[in-house]
Each structure stands twice: as structure tokens, then as C-alpha cells.
Amino acid sequence: MSKNKLIVKNTIFLATRTVISILISLYTTRVVLYQLGTNDYGLFNVIYGVVALTVFLSAAMNESVQRYISLDLGRGDIQAVRNTIKNSLCIYLFLSLSFTFVLFSLNNYVITSLINIPHSSIIVAKKVYGIAVLSIFISIIQTPFNAIVIAHERMSFYAYMSIFDVSSKLLIAFSLSIVTHDKVLFYSLFLLFSSVITFIIYTVFCFFSFKDNFKNGFLSISVMKNIASFSFWNIFGNFAYVCRTQGINIAINIFFSTATNAAYAISTSVLNAMTSLTQSLALAIRPQIFKSYANQSDSNRYKMLIFFGSKYTFSLLFLLSFPIILLTEQVLSIWLVNVPFCAVIFVRIILSVALVDSLSSSIIAGIQASGRIKVYQLVVGFMVFMSLPLTYFSYKLNYPPYSAFVILFIISIINLNLRIFFLKKATGFTFKDYYSLVILPCMCSVILVIATNYVLLNFFKYDSILNTFVSITLHYIVTFFVLCITVPSKEERQFVLNYMLRKFK
């Protein structure tokens, strides 16, 4: 199978998985919010948010292991693949045990001092915290197996497991109806059980599907050092992102209430649903960027994939999110019935932030492929981290809850340009190339979509679910056609046309 066909195939698998996952996840959020109530739902999210501060570790290591395995596969060096896997498994096991010990040790401090929890809920909160720590432990030790699957581009299995994961969470949400007390505690236990099952399936699949990757690997100080060095700077960058996401969650809890945390959780649920589909494209392209970089004769393809990934990741997210941004109030009312305070404006601004960040997905992969990430992570990570103290001071000055997202939007624009700069230093790309081939067609499409859709607003009433559904569908259709006209280059349109003609002959 050709490389381009593999990308298309994997994107289709991941996109299908994501559409199903979005629908299930959104409905699951509605059920869980109803079953737990606003306060318990906010309590659950703030506790898991604190514990998830350690998720930056697994995310960073995942990217590192993916990179090394993909580069080794691109060079055709199977022994290097074996060594990378064996050494990464050892590193993961050690770090997961260490972090679990530290988190358990901080139980009392986190619950009684760090976050704002009603006194009557402290006992339950401590139990939920302990369960959350165990869930994070499972997540960390599963990460190398995720990396193995993605590096080998077995996206069909990845897609099936994602559907299994969200389906199990929906089943868990429905099961809460039979629980008569401490629903947030039982919800946490059920999620832990689901995580254990997922981990077992991933482990068995990898050992049986990639047997050769686990044979005759050698423990090596130099390999561990390379992985650890690359991972360290990834950890720094990912830690900054976790501070941004979960730190703001904690700041909202300190200055406002668990009800506002619920609104924040709703906005992140919408964000995750929207971005998960665009990440399907980014995930399908990412291993190919690494392999193209490793193969020195494939440098033109490496550059093409970065430009392609940026442009179409943004376009796909814009297609999905703009009608939601336009009709946020109506959509949330249908979805949740009782919409938490601030949820509407949270959703609108956080999706705008995601649109800016979506342009960076392929740029980040391109920089990581080069291995020159130390200064990049220091600069960009620092800018990302600064959103947290800026948010804290804005709340101290009595600015509204959504001010955090305005800060995020500004910093995201700054970081996009910083990433282009570091890509230029690592690969020879130019700002002119990126802005003319990616930014310009994307911005033209945004302007035209906004203009055409705002005209349509005057022709619809949103007084019923049916009318709202019809209008949203029409907004999606208009947005799709405008993007098809403005985003693709002449060569890309010709490629798609020729591909369609071959398929229908």
C-alpha cells in the first residue's frame, strides 16, 4: 500500500472512530451530569483535574517513544526498534510507580488545602482521589503500548479501542441510575475497572501482533539517555499545557465555585469532541512525518506533509466547530437542557483557541522529527505556562471567569508564530511559505464562511429542536462548500478529482 493511501485509510478509520466517539461522549456527558448533579460533577472534574497534572508525563513519553520507533522503522532498523521498546517499558514502569507514590503521599494536602471542597464531601473526595491516582497509574504504563500501535500505523485497532473506551463510559453512566448513594465514588470505581480492561487488551494485542519487536531487545544506558533526554524537554512542554488546562480548572475552583467548574468541564467536553476528529488527521500524518524525515531522500514529502497537515487540520476543525460557535446557546440547550452558568461563552472562546492551536499540530511533529526541541520547549512551554499566572492575576483583579480564555487565545497566536520560527531554524522553512500556503487560504475561508453564515442567521427561527437542527445542518453544508472552494490549491483539487474519477470508472 502506498504511503498516501495508508494516510487516507488510517484517516478514515480514525475519523469514523471519532464521529462515533463524539456522539457517544456528548451523550455520556449529559447522562453523567444528570446522574451526579452539577456540584458532584464539578467535584469529580476538579479532583481528576488535579491528578491529571501528571498526565503530562505519559503524553510526553508517548510522543518520544513514537518518534524513536517511527524513525527506526523509517530507517528499517528492527533491532533499534526492539531496544527502544524494551528500554522505554523499563522507564515507564519506574516513573509510574514513583508518581503513584508521590500522589498518594499528597492526598490530605490536595483535598484539604489545595482545592475548594465542601467539608461534607471531604471523605468521599479522598476516596475519589485515591481511585483517580490508580487510574493515572494504569494510563501511564499503557502509554508505550499506545505508542507502538501508532508508530506501526495500526489505526484500525486504535479506532476500535477508542470506540470500546467511550462505549464503556456510556454504560458506566447508565449504571449510575442503580446506585443510590455516593454516585461520584462508584463512578470513579467503574472508570478504573474500564481502564484496567483497556490496558489488558492493549498489552495482549501488542505482544501478539508485534512479537518481533519484543525479541532480543537490549537494555542500554545510551538508549535510555536518548529517550530520557528527548522526553525531558517534551515533559517540560506538556507540563506547561497541563498547567494551562488543569491549573485554570483549579483557579476557577478557588475564585468561583464547583458550578463554574461544571461549566468549564462542559466546555472541555465540547472541545475534546471537536478536536478528537481533527486529531485523527494529525495522528495519521504524524508517523509519516517522522519516517519521511528519517529517509533523507524523502525531504520534499516531509515538507509537504507539514503544510498539508496544518491546513487541513485547521479546515476540518473549523468545519466542525464554527456552526457550534455560531449557535452555542441553542446547541447546549438541546444537549444539556440545564446549561451551567458561563458555559456558552466558555465554549465559544475555547473553540477559538483550539482553531489557532490546530495549525500547530503538524509543525510540532516536524520540529520533533528534527530532534531540536530543547530551546523550542523552553520558549513555547514558558509562554503556555504564563497563561496560568496571568489567569490568576486576572481573577484577583475581579475579571470574569472567561478572561482566562481570552488570555489563552492571545498566547496561542504568539505560540503559532514561535513554532513557525523554530521550524524555520530546524528545517529551512520560511514564514513566507507558511503564510502564503497555509495561513492565507485558511483566513480567506474563515472570512467567507462568517459572511455567508451570518446572512443565513436572518432566515431561521430557533424556537424548536427541529428548526435548530435544520439550520445547523444548513450551516454545516454552507461551511463545507466554502472551505472546498477556498482551501485546496489547484493541484490538490486536481488530485482529488482524478482520484474520484478513477474510483467511479
What does this structure look like?
- The protein has one domain.
- The chain has helices at residues 3-51, 55-75, 78-105, 107-114, 122-151, 155-175, 183-209, 221-255, 258-294, 299-326, 328-336, 343-358, 361-370, 374-396, 403-427, 431-457, 465-486, 490-504.
- The chain has 18 helices and no strands.
- By secondary structure, the protein is mainly alpha-helical.
- The chain is 85% helix and 0% strand.
- The longest helix has 49 residues, at 3-51.
- The mean pLDDT is 79.
- Helix 1 packs parallel to helix 6 (155-175), helix 2 packs parallel to helix 5 (122-151) and helix 16 packs antiparallel against helix 17.
What structural class do the secondary elements suggest? mainly alpha
Largest sheet geometry: none
Mean pLDDT over all positions: 79
Shape: globular
How large is the radius of gyration?
23 Å
Order of helices and strands: HHHHHHHHHHHHHHHHHH
Question: Which stretches are poorly predicted, pLDDT < 50 over at least 5 residues?
Answer: none
Percent in strands:
under 5%
How far from one another are the termini?
A: 21 Å
Provide a short characterization of the protein structure.
The protein has 505 residues and is mainly α.
Question: What key attributes describe this structure?
Answer:
mainly alpha, single chain, 18 helices, 505 residues
